[in-house]
């Protein structure tokens, strides 16, 4: 303890509050435990507690990983760009998936299916299949298109979530495929 006190002048280890570290400054005396648990001391310094909560929120958001979005290979449509807004979603956020894709010259689709396969913590869930024209304007001819859809980011879940979006036409040709890997 003497070595720690010599390295950190103005810091008393094990004084007054049991084993907590107490900082002595000319203006006030602040213990580390009062910074994150003001209710334990019977007093609440609201401004300091709010500053602590904001700092912890910002610190934890630095460690939040952005989901990885990647188009699959061997599809008829070319994915030019794909983004999430916000880039790093937090639980409960409304998240927009914005996709820019190109339909090749000479191809027109009048229908098909959109399949959404989710895997939560490596356990596959039942896929959802909907008509393709429910999500995009049909008939869809050659050109560049921008598609956007909004969902609520899951709350109360931890682990990994993998989503595979696959568009196929009425003949079974894979038009577009996108994989989203997220850590919750």
Describe the protein's topology.
Elements: H1 2-7, E1 11-13, E2 21-24, E3 29-31, H2 32-36, H3 46-63, E4 68-71, E5 78-85, E6 94-103, E7 112-120, E8 123-124, E9 128-131, E10 143-152, E11 160-169, E12 174-183
Antiparallel strand pairs: 1-2, 2-3, 4-12, 5-6, 6-10, 7-8, 7-9, 7-11, 11-12
Overview of this protein structure:
With 184 residues, this protein is an alpha+beta fold. It folds into two domains: 2-63, no CATH class; 68-183, Immunoglobulin-like (Sandwich), CATH 2.60.40.770. It contains three helices and twelve strands, in the order H-E-E-E-H-H-E-E-E-E-E-E-E-E-E. It has helices spanning 2-7, 32-36, 46-63, and strands at residues 11-13, 21-24, 29-31, 68-71, 78-85, 94-103, 112-120, 123-124, 128-131, 143-152, 160-169, 174-183. Strands 4, 7, 8, 9, 11 and 12 form a six-stranded antiparallel β-sheet that branches. The longest helix is centred in the first third of the chain and has 18 residues, at 46-63. It starts with a helix and ends with a strand.
Summarize the structure in short.
The chain is built from three helices and twelve strands.
User: Which percent range fits the helix content?
Assistant: 10-25%
The percentage of residues in β strands lies in 35-45%
CATH topology descriptor of the largest domain: Immunoglobulin-like
Please provide the count of β strands: 12
Q: What is the molecular shape?
A: elongated
**What does the radius of gyration come to?**
26 Å
Assembly state (oligomeric): single chain
Unreliable spans: 1-36
Structural class: alpha+beta
Number of helices: 3
Please state the second-level CATH architecture of the largest domain: Sandwich
The biggest sheet amounts to: 6 strands, antiparallel
Class of the largest domain in CATH?
Mainly Beta
What is the arithmetic mean of pLDDT? 78
Write the H/E string, N to C.
Answer: HEEEHHEEEEEEEEE
Distance between the termini: 41 Å
Tell me the number of structural domains: 2
